[in-house]
């Protein structure tokens, strides 16, 4: 394919998690439109325990593609005024918490580990020629609602403000994301905290004094 044809490709970035509500400045600046209510072509689940890049998540469960379980979820595509290579670098920097550090460019690792952030591509998706998305390994085992709730509750005193697991789940719900474990995951948080809503559970946990060091 010629360089000119490559440059004329329409390019998008698929968002299915925190990227929806928090794309960061590089994506926001280059975005010319948003295609909403796009269903992911792969299954998604709260399957990765994340400390977070550029801001701690305290081990909170986050959404990643999964080979088993999960569900197709409703996401959106950011239409980018960038080449595929530029959009790849922008997405990569966002995911590793290095937004604006232009020297940070994506290079696919020769050997993939659970720590790697991979940028994958879909063709002819959502009405665009190329749509990019991130592939990060699932790390939560066992992947059960009770374990997810334990991780989310434990993340509240450890995470940066607004980056804990309960805040992440609230944001996912507001974006219309529903995975196979979402209902039972939420129910377990409410059961463990004795609250009726996730917002109340978060406020209760935030108000508790930090545990003394052991």
Summarize the structure.
The protein is 31% helix and 24% strand. With 214 residues, the protein is of the alpha+beta class.
Termini Cα gap: 61 Å
Reported for the largest beta sheet, the result is: 5 strands, mixed
Strand order of the largest sheet: 2-5-1-7-6
What would you report as the Rg, rounded to the nearest angstrom? 18 Å
Write down the overall mean pLDDT. 93
Helix fraction by DSSP (H/I, runs of at least 4): 25-40%
The coarse overall form would be globular
Q: What structural class do the secondary elements suggest? A: alpha+beta
Q: What percentage of amino acids are in beta strands?
A: 15-25%
- Count helical runs: 7
| H/E topology pattern | HEHEEEEHEEHHHH
Outline the low-pLDDT stretches. none
| Strands, count | 7
Topology (elements, then pairings):
Blueprint: H1 3-7, E1 11-15, H2 25-30, E2 31-39, E3 44-50, E4 60-65, E5 74-80, H3 84-95, E6 117-125, E7 128-136, H4 145-155, H5 165-174, H6 182-193, H7 198-207
Parallel strand pairs: 1-7
Antiparallel strand pairs: 1-5, 2-5, 3-4, 6-7
Helix pairs in contact: 4-6, 5-7, 6-7
């Amino acid at each position: 394919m010629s360089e000119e044809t490559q440059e004329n490709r329409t390019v998008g970035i698929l968002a299915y998690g925190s990227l929806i509500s928090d794309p960061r400045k590089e994506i926001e600046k280059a975005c010319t439109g948003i295609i909403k209510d796009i269903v992911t072509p792969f299954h998604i689940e709260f399957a990765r325990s994340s400390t977070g890049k550029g801001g701690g998540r305290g081990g909170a469960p986050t959404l990643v593609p999964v080979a088993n379980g999960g569900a197709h979820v409703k996401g959106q595509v950011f239409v980018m005024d960038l080449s595929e290579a530029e959009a790849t670098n922008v997405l990569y920097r966002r995911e590793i918490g290095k937004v604006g550090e232009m020297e940070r460019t994506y290079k696919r690792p020769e050997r993939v580990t659970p720590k790697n952030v991979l940028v994958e591509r879909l063709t002819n998706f959502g009405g665009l020629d190329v749509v990019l998305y991130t592939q990060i390994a699932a790390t939560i085992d066992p992947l059960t609602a009770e374990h997810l709730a334990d991780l989310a509750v434990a993340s509240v005193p450890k995470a940066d403000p607004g980056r804990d697991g309960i805040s992440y789940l609230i944001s996912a719900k507001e974006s219309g994301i529903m995975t196979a474990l979402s209902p039972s995951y939420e129910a377990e948080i409410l059961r463990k905290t004795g609250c009726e809503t996730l917002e109340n559970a978060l406020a209760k946990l935030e108000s508790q004094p930090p545990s003394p060091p052991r």
